[in-house]
Write a structure and sequence with these properties.
It comes from Flavobacterium restrictum. This is HNH endonuclease. The chain is mainly alpha-helical. The protein has three domains: 59 residues, no CATH class; 86 residues; 90 residues. A two-stranded antiparallel ribbon has the order 1-2. Helix 4 crosses helix 5 and helix 9 packs parallel to helix 11. The longest helix has 20 residues. It starts with a helix and ends with a helix.
């Protein structure tokens, strides 16, 4: 979609108050589309905002052209469109005197759209507001999207409440990790992977091992080089290690090896030592 088409669609959404003209459901709880319907009596095209369900009902009236969202888009694209509409609404209302209240309501609706038919109660809304105050709106939206992708699956089974509870609980942990310094963030990610991968994983000891390892690296490498090492070497061995004890022995050996490094040629030493 071109920039002109994007702007056109946004103006239609704003004109219709980000609301389906047929049934009244709103974005961001529901993904909305802009459709061209049959010309009016003056032979001018009429564009309206519609949700997916109503577009099915009104299908015989719809004329598709280049100025609409594709209705049958992939799930991943729907997620992107849903977030984009949330961001458009936030931008649209930013100058309102009650913006602080309205933005929380939008985020709550954004979450509700993902957890249907469950929806947040007052306690959940309060937590959303606390997260937004502590971490900011951009990090909060990012955390919601990450948790959605990782923990929230299409399921209307009897376990739906448990799935939603896990999804919501993980948002807080994701936000905490985001607030950490880059190296600490990587360490937290590695511990999370190890905990899920290895049944005997000891998170407390793993944290000590990783801190010792990073402490030795800091004597030789820059922050970016350490982050790269954690993202590649350590992350890889965490996934590939046979078990907790295998991982523990490897990281402790690497830590000991680093103590023998010299500053010169240290990058090459890193590469060679990991190939042994």
């Amino acid at each position: 979609m071109t920039e002109i088409e994007e702007k056109f669609n946004l103006e239609i959404l704003k004109r219709d108050l980000f609301t389906c003209v047929f049934c009244g459901v709103k974005s961001p709880e529901n993904l909305l589309f802009v459709f061209r319907i049959s010309e009016n009596k003056n032979n001018l095209p009429v564009f309206v905002t519609s949700c997916y369900s109503c577009s099915e009902i009104e299908n015989n009236k719809i004329i598709y052209n280049d100025l609409i969202f594709e209705k049958h888009i992939k799930k991943s694209e729907r997620v992107k469109e849903s977030r984009k509409q949330l961001e458009q609404q936030l931008e649209w209302i930013k100058d309102l005197p009650n913006f602080e209240t309205e933005k929380i309501e939008l985020i709550v609706n954004y979450v509700n759209g993902k957890i249907k038919p469950v929806f947040l109660q007052d306690d959940g809304k309060k937590i959303i507001a606390e997260w937004e105050t502590k971490y900011g709106i951009e990090k909060l939206i990012n955390a919601i999207d990450i948790s959605t992708k990782s923990y929230l699956f299409d399921s209307l089974s009897e376990h739906r409440l448990n799935v939603v509870a896990l999804f919501f609980d993980k948002i807080g942990g994701i936000l905490y990790n985001m607030s950490l310094a880059p190296i600490q963030n990587k360490i937290a990610n590695i511990r999370a992977i190890g905990r899920n991968k290895h049944s005997s994983w000891d998170n407390r000891i793993a944290n000590i091992i990783l801190k010792n390892y990073v402490g030795e690296l800091e004597k030789h490498l820059t922050e970016n080089e350490i982050i790269e090492d954690l993202e590649t070497e350590v992350m890889q061995i965490t996934k590939k290690a046979k078990n907790w004890f295998d991982w523990k022995n490897i990281l402790e050996k690497w830590t000991t090896d680093i103590q023998d490094w010299k500053k010169e040629g240290v990058t090459e030493i890193v590469k060679k030592s990991r190939k042994k």
